[in-house]
From TrEMBL:
GO molecular function: asparagine synthase (glutamine-hydrolyzing) activity; ATP binding
Coiled-coil boundaries: none
Organism: Mortierella hygrophila
GO terms, biological process: asparagine biosynthetic process
Record keywords, A-Z: ATP-binding, Nucleotide-binding
Protein name, as recorded: Asparagine synthetase
Record-level GO cellular component terms: cytosol
Length: 178
C-alpha cells in the first residue's frame, strides 16, 4: 500500500514546490528482478544489514581504481523510515508544536470530542484539529484512509511514524512526548 502513504507523501510534498519526484526502485523491471531474488537472501541479521544486496551493488571498495557511487557514510548508514528523510528536526518540531497547541485539558477530553479513532497523542490530536478546520464536513473525514503502523515497528500510536524501537537511541528519554 505504498501508494496510500509514502508515494503519495513524496508526490504531494515535491509537487507542492513544482518538483517531480522520481522513484527508481519502483520501476517495474527493477521490481521484477527484486521479487525474483530468494527471500532468504534479502533478510537482514547480525553482520548483514537491511538492503544488503542493493548496498553491495553500489559498493566499489573491491576495485581500488573505481570511483565510488556514494560515500560509505551514506551507503552503509542505518536504514531509516521514509518519513525520516526530512530529518528528525522537522518531525521533532511538529511534536514540540503539538505540545504547545494542545493543552492537557483538551487532550484529556479527546475521547469526548472524537469517540471514533480517538487521537492517542497530542501530535495526533493537533493533526486531527487542523484537518477538521480545513475539512469540516463529515464526508471529508470518511474519505480519509487511516495510516496504521505495523505493530512490530513499536510505534502504534505515533502519527509521525518515528517512534520505532530502532530509533530509541535518537530520543532524549527526559523529553516530553507529544
Amino acid at each position: 500500500n505504498l501508494h496510500y502513504a509514502d508515494c503519495l507523501r513524496a508526490n504531494k510534498s515535491t509537487m507542492a514546490w513544482g518538483v517531480e519526484a522520481r522513484v527508481p526502485f519502483l520501476d517495474k523491471a527493477f521490481l521484477e528482478v527484486a521479487m525474483n531474488v530468494d527471500p532468504k537472501e534479502k533478510m537482514s541479521f547480525k553482520g548483514k544489514m537491511e538492503k544488503h544486496i542493493l548496498r553491495k551493488a553500489f559498493d566499489t571498495s573491491a576495485d581500488p581504481t573505481a570511483q565510488p557511487y556514494l560515500p560509505d557514510s551514506i551507503l552503509w548508514r542505518q536504514k531509516e523510515q521514509f518519513s525520516d528523510g526530512v530529518g528528525y528536526g522537522w518531525i521533532d518540531s511538529l511534536k514540540d508544536t503539538a505540545l504547545v497547541k494542545v493543552s492537557d485539558e483538551e487532550f484529556a477530553k479527546a475521547a469526548e470530542r472524537w469517540p471514533q479513532d480517538t487521537p492517542q497523542t497530542k501530535e495526533a490530536y493537533w493533526y486531527r484539529e487542523v484537518f477538521e478546520q480545513w475539512y469540516p464536513q463529515a464526508a471529508c473525514t470518511e474519505s480519509v484512509v487511516r495510516w496504521i503502523p505495523r505493530g512490530d515497528w513499536g510505534c502504534p500510536a505515533d502519527p509521525s511514524g518515528r517512534a520505532q524501537k530502532v530509533h530509541d537511541s535518537a530520543y532524549d528519554k527526559n523529553a516530553p512526548q507529544a
